[in-house]
Q: What sequence folds into this?
């Protein structure tokens, strides 16, 4: 580009100011990234939910069980392709603060239901052969330094006693947003050892043949068990996940509000800096115009300067946010899904450029409309 | 010799655009800081106010919350014989309780949320003296009757006085509404323990916890020692207030940590903004400053003068931020209490101490943002600055 020198000369004219503006821009974009990560952590479950999966729970509430005998009846319902079941265990490792999700699963059907969780075949085989085996997520294994072959004690809270498990496999998620902070162990072992609720499961997950028919399948399931002692409530996995998010309260509103405050501030700071920058060199700009550069060129000059700061600051801020997510969840297990999603990066980039242009508009038009004679006369 | 402060105040007015920007930046940070902390505080206050100092809660040893606990009726009998329990007209004040969760539709969104349903003993109002009936009457033991907390009544459909509702295999009538003084019980629905056990097909003689009113808060230690030493019992005994404080810890920590991180990051951004404003203030006024120095003002008074200017901006910003979030005080919001898997209503709680914290936070930003430019102003060589422009 022909005018590269003049643009850069202007940008680096006041290094301190450049540094400070860049600093506030970077901070704001970092905060944007951070908020996007938190938002994903709270509502992320909805995005990972499979379109062809349903969840059936006891109509009264999730903590009431359903009979295991429902499995066969579920499989006979038209449109149902596969059924698996699980039970919340709620065990704790060492200390209550080390919260993570752990539940008993049916080893024969669970993995086909959730193809997004990947386990090396030999490890899976080892799990199949060990009654006291457990599968843990990669993130969880890293958090406690667990390896395949470790024997770990989990203290039951709902189901009393200490349960020792052998870690037989470590699973990974196919996508960045898959939750790899869970522990699963075998249903047969659980069923045998638990002192109560024998023959009952916590919830069923169902795969339908055609996601388009989900609504009918949901109705068919709930009708089948209506007026039985254990009535069911079935939802698509997405709706099920969303119902938890809704109960979390106005997290989304909170995040949006903070985001808006940050952006408004950012716009003001950058706009102000650009205004100062233009004000300071009003004479120079007038000289440029006097020697024949067009109004449009002056406009372009100011906007280019602002854009440079915006793009660099945006890249730095988002990059920092990304770097932070690589460090893992800082709240120790409360946000199992912790990553910066690609759509958030795109939105961030667009916002950065938008702010860069918006902030420069007023100073740039002032510069463009500058009357040469008057500007040169001013001190 | 000091530069008159009116000089700085006038100069703030002259460069109003930069001043406004810096003020808003600081106001934003302080607002977020106060709002997040008040949210955490409100959640904690709601749970903590649920407990009273002279109540004890008894659970099975090892259970982290009532949900996971179980106590048999025989154990309750043993507890009732312990010394230190207050007596009411109907005998010792012990409320054996069962807690389940049922899904009721929220009025606001129409979607289901989990409501904590608590089976209580008829003496519960004497055990929990802060709970008062405000409409209707208390339930009759043995009947499918509900009394609902005022937040539950407000938040969910079908929980109005006189309406009937089906859950857990039974049909219930709402006969009363109670006010629990803004505590977690306000989000709950209460009924007779024995009826709840029947309807939920739970074993009749097993409860989850027992809440006991003691003769005084000081009776707690002796009461606890007696119970935990008793070979017939395997229970843990906590002061009710401590039990609820522990429940609030997880979410409070999450909100506080997140709030602190966000406020800190915003604070850094605001400091950059303040630095920028002050640096340009210094560079635009280089000649003015040099003139003052030439007139005999010392570099110390130049520093003081500029730091004062920066603190002014910070203070106005801090105050503005505090005022902006003040309307949030008392605003009710809901969140999941992960310890019980149930929905809990709570309010933002903005206290004078929090506001003071916000102001201190803003002044710190002003100091950090003001000192380096002030030093620079003081260090300028007079002759060079006078020649500039």
A:
């Amino acid at each position: 580009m022909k005018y590269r020198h003049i643009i850069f000369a202007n940008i680096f004219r006041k290094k301190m100011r450049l540094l400070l503006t860049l600093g506030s821009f970077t901070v704001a974009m970092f905060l944007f990234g951070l908020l996007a990560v938190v938002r994903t952590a709270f509502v992320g479950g909805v995005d990972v939910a499979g379109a062809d999966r349903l969840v059936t729970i006891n109509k009264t509430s999730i903590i009431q069980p359903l009979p295991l005998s429902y499995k066969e009846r579920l499989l006979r319902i038209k449109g149902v392709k596969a059924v698996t079941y699980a039970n919340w265990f709620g065990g704790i490792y060492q200390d209550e603060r080390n919260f993570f999700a752990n539940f008993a699963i049916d080893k024969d059907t669970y993995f086909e239901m959730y193809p997004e969780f990947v386990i090396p075949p030999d490890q899976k085989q080892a799990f199949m052969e060990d009654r006291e085996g457990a599968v843990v997520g990669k993130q969880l294994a890293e958090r406690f330094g667990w390896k395949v072959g470790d024997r770990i004690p989990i203290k039951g809270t709902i189901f009393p006693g200490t349960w020792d498990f052998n870690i037989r496999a470590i699973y990974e998620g196919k996508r960045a947003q898959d939750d790899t902070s869970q522990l699963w162990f075998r249903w047969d072992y659980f069923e045998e050892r638990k002192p109560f609720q024998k023959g009952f499961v916590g919830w069923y997950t169902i795969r339908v043949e055609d996601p388009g028919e989900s609504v009918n399948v949901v109705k068919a399931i709930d009708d089948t068990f209506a007026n039985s002692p254990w009535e069911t409530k079935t939802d698509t996995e997405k709706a099920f996940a969303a119902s938890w998010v809704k109960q979390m309260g106005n997290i989304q509103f909170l995040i949006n509000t903070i985001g808006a405050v940050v952006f408004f501030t950012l716009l003001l700071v950058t706009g102000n800096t650009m205004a100062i920058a233009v004000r300071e060199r009003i004479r120079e700009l007038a000289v440029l115009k006097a020697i024949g550069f067009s109004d449009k060129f002056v406009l372009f000059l100011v906007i280019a300067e602002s854009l440079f700061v915006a793009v660099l600051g945006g890249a730095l801020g988002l990059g920092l946010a990304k770097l932070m997510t690589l460090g893992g969840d800082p709240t120790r297990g409360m946000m199992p899904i912790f990553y910066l999603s690609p759509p958030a990066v795109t939105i961030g980039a667009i916002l950065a450029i938008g702010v860069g242009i918006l902030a420069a508009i007023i100073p740039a038009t002032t510069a463009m409309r500058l009357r040469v004679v008057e500007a040169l006369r001013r001190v | 010799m000091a530069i008159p402060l009116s000089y700085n105040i006038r100069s703030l007015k002259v460069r109003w655009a930069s001043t406004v920007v810096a003020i808003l930046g600081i106001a934003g940070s302080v607002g977020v800081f106060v709002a997040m902390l008040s949210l955490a505080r409100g959640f904690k206050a709601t749970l903590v106010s649920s407990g009273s100092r002279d109540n004890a809660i008894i659970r099975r040893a090892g259970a982290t919350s009532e949900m996971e606990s179980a106590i048999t009726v025989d154990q309750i009998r043993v507890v009732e014989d312990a010394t230190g329990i207050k007596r009411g007209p109907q005998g010792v004040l012990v409320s054996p309780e069962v807690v389940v969760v049922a899904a009721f539709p929220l009025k606001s969104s129409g979607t289901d949320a989990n409501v904590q349903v608590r089976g209580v003993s008829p003496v519960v109002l004497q055990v929990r003296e802060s709970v008062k009936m405000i409409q209707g009457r208390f339930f009759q033991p043995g009947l499918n009757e509900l009394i609902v907390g005022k937040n539950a009544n407000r938040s969910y459909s079908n929980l109005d006085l006189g309406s009937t509702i089906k859950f857990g295999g039974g049909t219930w009538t709402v006969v009363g509404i109670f006010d629990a003084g803004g505590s977690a019980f306000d989000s709950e629905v209460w009924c007779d323990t024995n009826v709840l056990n029947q309807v939920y097909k739970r074993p009749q003689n097993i409860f989850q916890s027992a809440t006991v009113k003691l003769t005084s808060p000081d009776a707690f230690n002796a009461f606890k020692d007696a119970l935990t030493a008793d070979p017939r019992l395997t229970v843990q005994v906590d002061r009710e207030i401590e039990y609820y404080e522990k429940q609030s810890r997880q979410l409070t920590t999450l909100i506080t940590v997140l709030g602190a991180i966000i406020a800190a990051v915003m604070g850094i951004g605001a400091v950059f903004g303040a630095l920028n404003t002050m640096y340009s203030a210094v560079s635009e006024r280089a000649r003015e400053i040099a003139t003052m120095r030439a007139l005999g003002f010392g570099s110390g008074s130049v520093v003081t003068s500029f730091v004062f200017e920066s603190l002014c901006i910070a203070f106005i910003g801090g105050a503005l931020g505090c005022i902006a979030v003040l309307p949030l005080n008392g605003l009710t919001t809901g969140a999941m209490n992960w310890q019980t898997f149930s929905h809990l209503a709570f309010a933002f709680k903005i206290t004078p101490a929090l506001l003071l914290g916000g102001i201190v936070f803003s002044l710190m930003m002003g100091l950090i943002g003001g000192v380096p430019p002030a030093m620079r102003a003081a260090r300028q060589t007079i002759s060079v600055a006078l020649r500039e422009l």
